[in-house]
Task: structure prediction
Amino acid sequence: MILGRKQLLINGEWRDGGGKPIPVVNPATEEVIAEVANATKEDVDAAVQSARAAFEGPWAKVSARERGRLLWKLGEKLMEQADAIATLETQHNGKPIFESRQIEIPASVECLQYYAGWADKVHGETVPVKGNALVYTRREPLGVVAAIVPWNFPLMLAVWKVAPALAMGNTVILKPASQTPLTALELGRLALEVGFPPGVLNVITGSGSTTGQAIVEHPGIDKIAFTGDTSTGKGIMRSAAETIKHVTLELGGKSPNIVFADADIDAAVRGATVGIFYGKGEVCAAGSRLLVEASIKDEFMDKLAARAKKMSVGDPMDPKTRFGALSSKAHFERVLGYIETAKKEGAALVAGGQRADIGTGKGYFLQPTVFGNVTTDMTIAKEEIFGPVLACIEFADVEDAIAKANGTIYGLAAGLWTKDVKKAHYVASKLKAGTVWVNTYNVYDTAVSFGGYKQSGFGREMGMHALDYYTQLKSVWVDLN
Ligand code: NAD
Result:
């Protein structure tokens, strides 16, 4: 045990949870590095009461500008402690320290400070109406928001919810994934340090089935902001219906990355690799289905396989490593299962496919894996693997590419590679996805909204549009007769 036992943050105080503590495992070493509290229904209730009291009391008295100032300070504090928090992110998730320190923490800081700027810039309108009346609108917070987040970007996906929610005057109960709870707890600690009143940001750890379910069913919560698996999202929507909670869902994907014959082939090969292998493929928007135009397929696949084979898997704590360990044993075994299924169903393994050893004999390391000759009926063409496994499918022409790209239940993101501007815009307009990247992949900015079409969910995170999902509109009529 390195980090000891972690408690719940409720009403500005650290306290034990009622359930059996949950071990946190470093997937690169297979060692238990900490234990976190397992919040029961009673703990969830205490968190809801604390968030409600803060919402109705001290937080309601804090001006919008002051909320923004607190968020900005939280971003500054996070940056000051970036090295330590990035280390935790890598230890519980297995991602390279390069990604935690140079990408995820700066992106989280940027998000906090972006929404700090919005805090005092969202306001109502006056409405011209018939008769002698003044009608104006107010943008009011929803109340108590529960943010339930997965294990792939534990801190950043928490911040994507916490920052706009707090900017708009809500209070928050944050529940990280049980595999990766450490950095969310740090966010709570920093929020207290910079002066957020007790109860404004509560962080409760625990399993999805107990803690998560208790949150979803609690009548005192006004909104669930969820990121995770599509099947979990469906259950959350059903449970939330009982008390008509607001719900936003950021769910799974099986995003197509389309390479047309007239693309810059080398750039597309690089884009295809970044698209699937960034974040070990544990990225909701991963370009996990590569669609290649038939006339360039052989050349493209040769280059792609060579590039994938050159990628080395390494110790996540080594700053040079770009590809770390998969997040957990269960997930690692699930991904290996998909590789076996792909072989059985007749896909051609052109790179990887095996456990990787970084010299320690430990850790859930997998070689970057590419399958060619995949057809749309195969399991790996349809189901989200959420790992470093690329399924390459050939297409005949533009309409075939669009049909295949849109041919899954998901619609989170898509990429396309072509030098033809007309074709690029035409295809972008036809793709049923919340984000389309043209001649690039996996790029994000806090100012750009992100979210799904179809069973990849609804609602948007980041950008100005996320604010709509953390406010409600009130119309006020004043009789002037
Ligand atoms: P998951 O659905 O298993 O868990 C996500 C969170 O929900 C965790 O905190 C978990 O404890 C909690 N949870 C589980 N069951 C619950 C229940 N019954 N009630 C309430 N909460 C519950 O997902 P995961 O395996 O942690 O994450 C991977 C998934 O997340 C993938 O499908 C991926 O595509 C998706 N994801 C989507 C986005 C996006 O923005 N669309 C981003 C990242 C990840």
Summary: DSSP finds 15 helices and 23 strands in the chain.
